[in-house]
Design brief:
CATH superfamily of the largest domain: ATPase, nucleotide binding domain
Helix content: 40-55%
CATH topology of the largest domain: Nucleotidyltransferase, domain 5
Number of domains: 2
Strand order of the largest sheet: 3-2-1-4-5
Bound molecules: adenosine-5'-triphosphate, magnesium ion
Largest sheet: 5 strands, mixed
Distance between the termini: 27 Å
Number of helices: 10
Oligomer: single chain
Radius of gyration: 21 Å
CATH class of the largest domain: Alpha Beta
Shape: globular
Length: about 350
């Protein structure tokens, strides 16, 4: 069965076609980063309006790319939450209208389930069970994943997400939005040992995180440097970027390793935008090889939001017989706040 998937939860419009037997057929993405950049962050109303402009051209693009006709599609998937309400409504209403017009079932997908299963789009594909480190702009969670719809939360951030920590500290250093990639690029020219930054909750017994103190520590460093030297020099900015990246990566890696030891599992899967960070990737590859395990990442283009992970999560749910394909009701709602536990098989 061919499934078309729509993602519009934040600032990326994504559309994709996935076949339940053959996998990903085509995907297309429009990122709104350039539009939001001048405001230093996502403007929800602008995001919604842009999704409206992009979604149909992207739909035509994936159909053409895959050589698939609309009447070959068997189901329609969309991100139903969590995310920005107005932005979610665009994808949800387009998907539901498409499904209603063609007499197809519509499958609401939890955005984090999309991220969580996205490493399975890679080859080789990790088998279940695995530990997942989900590190995105809004979430930092460690989960035990025993199968589709079988997710157990082991730990999460108590305040800021890892992506948010990258974005906020980058902003303090005068870097653009989104901060993660910019900070990471700058860090390549820096020396992480110049500034000693805290590793919040590194030694706590649990698998939880806290990143808001790190942001304050970076702010204090910036203010001290400015007091002593006026403005931050390029080298000071690079050194501070490297120290910030090292602090975040150290905590993420240490907690992931702790989760591997605690669960006794040998496969670690990393998902979400921060999973694109090359320093994090290198550190986890090294740590997992020491442990005699393996680490899997989504292809880089599927780390941040995309339609492929939504269509793919729907396909996995269909294959696991977790979807009622005979349900043709098309009344819908979106859930800007939505716990992943609600889509677990035991919920
Ligand atoms: N190379 C990188 N290094 C560090 N952080 C990065 C990198 N690339 C992207 N990010 C961060 O990833 C985040 C975006 O990821 P993603 O699109 O998965 O999050 P989101 O969709 O905004 O959040 P959520 O999925 O929790 O709602 C941003 O915070 C961004 O700064
Ligand atoms: Mg996301």
């Amino acid at each position: 069965m061919i499934i078309i998937g729509f993602e519009s939860s934040c600032d990326e419009t994504g559309v994709a076609l996935v076949c339940t037997e053959r996998g990903l057929l085509a995907h297309a993405l429009h990122s709104q980063i350039a539009m939001h950049q001048e405001y230093g962050g996502v403007v929800p109303e602008l995001a919604s309006r842009d999704h409206i402009r992009r979604v149909l051209p992207l739909t035509r693009q994936v159909l053409q790319q895959a050589g698939v006709k609309a009447d070959q599609i068997g189901a329609v998937a969309y991100t139903a939450g969590p995310g920005l309400a107005g932005a979610l409504l665009v994808g949800a209403s387009v998907a539901q209208s498409f499904a209603w017009a063609r007499g197809l079932p519509a499958i609401p997908i939890h955005h984090l389930e999309g991220h969580l299963l996205s490493p399975l789009l890679a080859s080789p594909r990790p088998g279940f069970p695995f530990v997942a480190l989900l590190v995105s702009g809004g979430h930092t969670q460690i989960m035990r994943v025993d199968g589709v719809g079988n997710y157990q939360l082991l730990g999460e951030t108590l305040d800021d997400a890892a992506g948010e920590a990258f974005d906020k500290t980058a902003k303090l250093m005068g870097l653009g939005y989104p901060g993660g990639p910019a900070l990471s690029r700058l860090a390549q020219q820096g020396d992480a040992s110049v500034y000693d930054l805290p590793r919040p909750m590194l030694h706590s017994r649990d698998l939880d995180f806290s990143f808001s103190g790190l942001k304050t520590a970076v702010l204090t460093r910036v203010k001290n440097i400015e007091k002593d030297c006026g403005q931050l020099s390029e080298q000071q900015r690079a050194d501070l970027a490297a120290a910030t990246e090292a602090a975040i990566v150290d905590v993420l890696a240490a907690k992931s390793i702790k989760a591997m030891k605690q669960t006794g599992l040998k496969r670690l899967v990393v998902a979400g935008g921060v999973g694109a960070n090359s320093h994090l990737r290198a550190k986890l590859v090294q740590a997992m090889s020491k442990l005699g395990g393996e680490v899997f990442f989504p292809p880089l283009e599927f780390c941040t939001d995309n339609g492929a992970m939504i269509a793919f999560a729907a396909a996995m749910r269909v294959n696991a017989e977790l979807v009622d394909l005979s349900d043709m009701r098309h009344a819908f709602t979106v859930k800007p706040r939505w716990e992943l536990h609600d889509v677990c098989v035991d919920s």
